[in-house]
Design a protein that fits this description.
alpha+beta; six-stranded mixed β-sheet; five-stranded mixed beta barrel; DNA polymerase, domain 1; 4 domains; OB fold (Dihydrolipoamide Acetyltransferase, E2P)
C-alpha cells in the first residue's frame, strides 16, 4: 500500500483497497482503477474477496460468464453493460452502445425505451424476470460514472509504470513527484512527508547547489530555488549562470557583486536569506543586517562594470576587497525560522512546530491533512497539530464561532468550530497551541475542512494515553453517522444499505478539553441539537460552511434536502411523542398535513450582507419560458402539493439546481401539483409548474441520488 505519489493509486481509499487487492497483473490495476469510481465502487470488496477465493464467483446468468469471467462475475467496465445487453437481450452492437450511452448520460426517455426493449427481448429469449431485473439493476450504478475498458487499461498501465519507478528509482521518482506538484504547498508537504517516511532527506534551497526545480543530490533531494516565494525565474537564472561561469560565491558581498541585482532585488535576497539559501555565509540574522551595505556595494560595482570603469581590485584575482566582516547578531529563534519557512516555502522543512511530539502524536490520530480524500467525506476522524491561525466570526444569531488552521506533518487543514463547540472550547483555540481535534470531514469542490465536535489539548490527551484517548473519542461519537451506503427508499444514504436513517436523538455537541491539563468527560445526550426542542416531525437543520449558501432553513415535515453546495453539518432529530408521559412510545404515524412551519435563520460563517447575491431575474424568466407559470402567492395549504423552497445561492448554482430538479420531476409525472418558492430579495417568489408529479418514495430516492443535499427543501403539504 505504499502508493503515495503513484498515478491513480495515491488516495487514502485507493491505498487501502490496492493493499487488500494484492494485484498480480496490470489487469488487476485496470479493474481497480475502473472500480474506484462513483458507479461501481460498491463492488470493490466483493471483487477483492472473489480474487482471493474468499467468496465464490457467481454470475447473474450463465450467458454472462464468457464476458465477466476475468472480473469474477462483477460489472466493472462500461463494455460489460453492452456485452450483457447483447448476450441476454439480443441487442446488436449499435443498440447496446445506445443503451450504454443512455445510462452514462442519464437520458431518461431513451433509457426507458431501452429498458423496455431489454426486458421484452430478454424474456423472449427465456431469461427469468427476476434475472432481468437483477441485471438491469447492475447497470444502474454506472449512471454515477464508470470507466470504459480501454481508458482503465491505459490508466492501469501507467499506474504500474509509476509504481515500478517508485519501487526501483525511489529518489529520482519522488524528485519528479515534488516537481510535478510544486504549485500546491499541501501536496508538496504530503510528498515530503512520504520522503521522510522512506528515509529520503529533502534538503533546503541553496544558491550553490539548487536548480530551478527539485533535483537529485546523491541519495537526497534538493529544494529548487523557484519554490521560494518572491524569487522569480530571472533572478534564479542569473544566480545559476554566475556560479557556473565563475564558481561558488565567496561571501554575501561577492554574491551581490556578481548576481544581476536588477533581477535579484532586496525582496528576493531577503527571501533567500530567510529560507537558508545563503546559509554558507552566516546565519540569517547576520545576513539580513549586512544586506543593505552589501547590495549598495554590489550595485556600485555593477554600475562601474557597465560604464567600463574597472578598479585595480576588480582587475586582479584578489578577493579581499569583497570580503566584509558580518555584524554580530543574535541568531533568530527556531520558531521564527520555522515561520519564515512556512511563509516562503509553504511548509516546514528543517523542522516542524510539533518537534519531537510529531512521532508521538501519530499514535493518537487516525488521519493527516494530506489523507482527506473524497472517500472520507462526512467520516469522523481525529487529527492533531499546531494551531497557526484563528479567525473568530460573529453569526447572525450573535454567537461566536471560529475557523482555525491546524498544521500537521502533511500540511494544513481548516477546522470549522461552530458556536456550540466554540462556547465550550474557546480558550483552546490560540496560536501555537497543540491540539487533537475530532470531527467530520467535509468536502466542497477542491476545498476540505474539518467540522470539529471535540477538542483535546495535547497535555490532556497525553495524560490519558493512546488507548484511553481512543475510547474517549469513541464515547464522543454519539451523533448520527453519515455513511457511504446506497440511498434508501426515503432518499437517505446512511450506510445501512437502504434502510431508514437512525431514529436516535443526537447528543449535544461533545467537548472534552476543559482546561490545559484536564480532559472533560463527554456531555450526556440530554439536550437537543443547537438547543432546539425536538419537533414532532423529522427536522433537518443545515449550517453552511461558506457564504455561497445563505438564507434560511425550514423547520417542519422535511423529506429531503436537495441540490447545491454540500452542507457543513446535518443533524436529524427523531419524531417524539406528542403527549407528556415520559415513557410514551414515539409516534410513528405520518404527521398531519398542515401549513408550513415558520422559518428559522441559519448561522453562516460569513454574515456580511454585501456578499449575498441579488435575485437573478433570468432564473425566473428561464423557468417561465420553459415550463413554469407564475402564480400569485399561495395560501399556506391548498390541498396536497409538493413545495420546494430554495436557499439563497449564487446564480449558477441556483440555475443548475433548478434545471436538475426539473429533469427529475419530469421523470416522475403525476397529479400532485408542484410549487417552487425561490428567494427574491427578502421575500420568496412562488411558481407553480404546469405538470404535476407522482409523489412517492421513488421520487425522493431519485431526488436524493441526483441532487444530494444542501440548497433546497422538498416536502408534501
Amino acid at each position: 500500500g505504499e502508493t503515495t505519489g503513484v498515478f491513480q493509486l495515491e488516495s487514502p481509499g485507493m491505498r487501502r483497497y490496492v493493499k487488500d487487492l494484492r494485484p498480480t497483473s496490470v489487469l488487476d490495476l485496470a479493474a481497480m482503477v475502473a472500480l474506484f469510481r462513483p458507479g461501481p465502487m460498491d463492488n470493490i470488496p466483493a471483487y477483492i474477496r472473489r480474487k482471493h477465493g474468499q467468496e465464490p464467483v457467481s454470475y447473474l446468468h450463465p450467458l454472462l460468464e464468457p464476458y465477466l469471467r476475468k472480473t469474477y462475475g462483477i460489472f466493472v467496465y462500461q463494455e460489460d453493460i453492452m456485452s450483457a445487453a447483447m448476450a441476454l437481450g439480443g441487442f446488436t452492437g449499435p443498440e447496446a452502445d445506445t443503451l450504454g450511452y443512455a445510462i452514462r448520460k442519464k437520458k431518461s426517455s431513451v433509457l426507458r425505451a431501452q429498458k423496455e426493449k431489454f426486458v421484452t427481448q430478454a424474456a423472449e429469449r427465456g431469461v427469468a424476470p427476476h434475472t432481468i431485473d437483477a441485471v438491469f439493476k447492475a447497470f444502474e450504478p454506472f449512471e454515477r460514472y464508470g470507466f470504459n475498458k480501454a481508458h482503465a487499461t491505459c490508466y492501469g498501465l501507467i499506474a504500474y509504470q509509476t509504481a515500478y519507478l517508485k519501487a526501483n528509482y525511489t529518489v529520482e521518482y519522488m524528485t519528479s513527484v515534488l516537481t510535478a506538484v510544486r504549485d500546491s504547498s499541501d501536496r508538496v508537504a504530503a510528498a515530503i512527508a512520504e520522503c521522510r517516511r522512506l528515509g529520503i532527506e529533502v534538503r533546503p534551497p541553496d544558491v550553490h547547489l539548487s536548480g530551478l526545480h527539485f533535483t537529485v543530490e546523491g541519495e537526497a533531494i534538493r529544494f529548487g530555488l523557484l519554490a521560494v516565494k518572491n524569487v522569480g525565474q530571472g533572478a534564479i537564472e542569473s544566480i545559476i549562470e554566475c556560479r557556473e561561469k565563475d564558481g561558488d560565491f565567496r561571501s554575501l558581498a561577492d554574491f551581490c557583486s556578481r548576481v544581476d541585482l536588477r533581477l535579484g532585488n532586496k525582496r528576493v535576497l531577503e527571501s533567500l536569506i530567510r529560507v537558508g539559501a545563503l546559509g554558507r555565509f552566516g546565519h540569517p540574522a547576520q545576513l539580513l543586517l549586512a544586506l543593505d551595505d552589501a547590495m549598495a556595494a554590489g550595485q556600485a560595482q555593477q554600475r562601474d562594470r557597465v560604464s567600463g570603469q574597472v578598479s585595480l581590485f576588480d582587475a586582479s584575482d584578489a578577493g579581499a576587497p569583497l570580503e566584509r566582516t558580518l555584524p554580530q547578531a543574535t541568531e533568530a529563534p527556531s520558531r521564527e525560522r520555522l515561520r519564515w519557512e512556512k511563509e516562503l516555502l509553504g511548509l516546514y522543512l528543517s523542522d516542524h512546530p510539533l518537534g519531537e511530539l510529531a512521532t508521538e502524536i501519530g499514535t493518537y490520530v487516525n488521519a493527516y491533512s494530506g489523507d482527506l480524500g473524497e472517500e472520507l467525506d462526512q467520516q469522523r476522524i481525529v487529527v492533531g497539530g499546531v494551531v497557526t491561525g484563528v479567525r473568530r466570526v460573529l453569526t447572525k444569531a450573535k454567537a461566536t464561532m471560529a475557523v482555525a488552521t491546524l498544521e500537521d506533518l502533511q500540511g494544513s487543514l481548516d477546522v470549522v468550530v461552530f458556536p456550540k463547540v466554540f462556547e465550550e472550547t474557546g480558550p483552546a483555540w490560540v496560536d501555537d497551541a497543540i491540539l487533537l481535534v475530532a470531527g467530520r470531514v467535509d468536502h466542497k469542490g477542491d476545498e476540505t475542512v474539518l467540522l470539529a465536535d471535540s477538542v483535546w489539548t495535547w497535555e490532556a490527551a497525553s495524560q490519558l494515553g493512546p488507548e484511553a484517548f481512543a475510547r474517549q473519542v469513541a464515547q464522543g461519537d454519539r451523533g448520527r453517522r453519515v455513511g457511504r451506503g446506497r440511498p434508501a427508499v426515503n432518499g437517505f444514504t446512511n450506510g445501512s444499505g437502504g434502510t431508514a436513517p437512525s431514529r436516535g436523538v443526537p447528543t449535544a455537541t461533545v467537548v472534552t478539553a476543559a482546561s490545559p491539563s484536564v480532559a472533560r468527560a463527554p456531555a450526556p445526550p440530554a439536550a437537543p441539537v443547537n438547543g432546539l426542542q425536538a419537533p414532532r416531525a423529522p427536522v433537518v437543520r443545515t449550517v453552511p460552511r461558506t457564504s455561497p449558501l445563505r438564507g434560511v432553513a425550514l423547520e417542519g415535515s422535511l423529506d429531503v434536502m436537495i441540490g447545491g453546495p454540500r452542507p457543513a453539518r446535518v443533524a436529524v432529530s427523531a419524531p417524539v411523542a406528542p403527549a407528556a408521559p415520559a415513557a410514551s412510545t414515539p409516534d410513528r404515524r405520518e404527521p398531519k398535513v398542515g401549513p408550513p412551519a415558520p422559518r428559522s435563520p441559519l448561522e453562516p460563517i460569513n454574515t456580511d450582507a454585501g456578499d449575498e447575491p441579488p435575485w437573478p431575474d433570468e432564473v425566473h424568466d428561464r423557468l417561465a419560458a420553459e415550463d413554469a407559470a407564475v402564480t400569485a402567492p399561495l395560501e399556506a395549504s391548498v390541498g396536497q402539493q409538493v413545495h420546494v423552497r430554495f436557499a439563497r445561492a449564487p446564480q449558477d448554482s441556483l440555475l443548475q439546481a433548478l434545471q436538475t430538479l426539473r429533469d427529475v420531476l419530469r421523470e416522475h409525472p403525476g397529479d400532485t401539483p408542484v410549487v417552487l418558492h425561490i428567494p427574491a430579495g427578502a421575500e420568496e417568489r412562488p411558481m407553480q409548474l404546469r405538470a404535476g408529479v407522482a409523489y412517492d418514495t421513488e421520487l425522493l430516492a431519485a431526488v436524493r441520488r441526483r441532487l444530494g443535499g444542501g440548497i433546497a427543501e422538498l416536502r408534501l403539504v
